[in-house]
């Protein structure tokens, strides 16, 4: 019979480094979006999706939240 206990998800050094790079990329793409007359086009959601797809939902949430926070601080939504 298989062991049905859950494994703990531990982020290693390599994962933390990848998450940091993706957060930086996300904040840059958020800060430099394309402004048109009616709407704004931003590619930061692509970075969220890539992080979530390749590294899991926890990494996607971290990249999404922190990348958006740092992007807002850089761009300055007031």
Detailed description of the structure:
This protein is mainly α and 78 residues long. The protein is 64% helix and 5% strand. It is built from three helices and two strands, in the order αββαα. It has helices at residues 13-31, 44-55, 57-75; strands at 34-35, 40-41. A two-stranded antiparallel sheet has the order 1-2. A hairpin with a 4-residue loop joins strand 1 (34-35) and strand 2. Helix 1 (13-31) packs antiparallel against helix 2 (44-55). The N and C termini lie far apart (59 Å). The model has no long low-confidence stretch (mean pLDDT 83).
Gross morphology: elongated
Number of helices: 3
Mean pLDDT, nearest integer?
Answer: 83
User: What topology, given as strand order, has the largest sheet?
Assistant: 1-2
Name the helicity range: 55-70%
Question: What's the total number of strands?
Answer: 2
Whole-Å distance between the termini? 59 Å
Strand content: 5-15%
Detail the poorly predicted runs: none
What structural class should be given to the helix and strand makeup? Answer: mainly alpha
- The whole-angstrom Rg is 16 Å
Encode the helix/strand succession as letters: HEEHH
Sheet bearing the most strands, described?
Answer: 2 strands, antiparallel
Summarize the structure.
The protein is mostly helical and 78 residues long. Helices cover 64% and strands 5% of the residues. A hairpin with a 4-residue loop joins strand 1 (34-35) and strand 2 (40-41).
Secondary-structure blueprint of this entry?
Blueprint lengths: L12 H19 L2 E2 L4 E2 L2 H12 L1 H19 L3
Antiparallel strand pairs: 1-2
Helix pairs in contact: 1-2, 1-3, 2-3
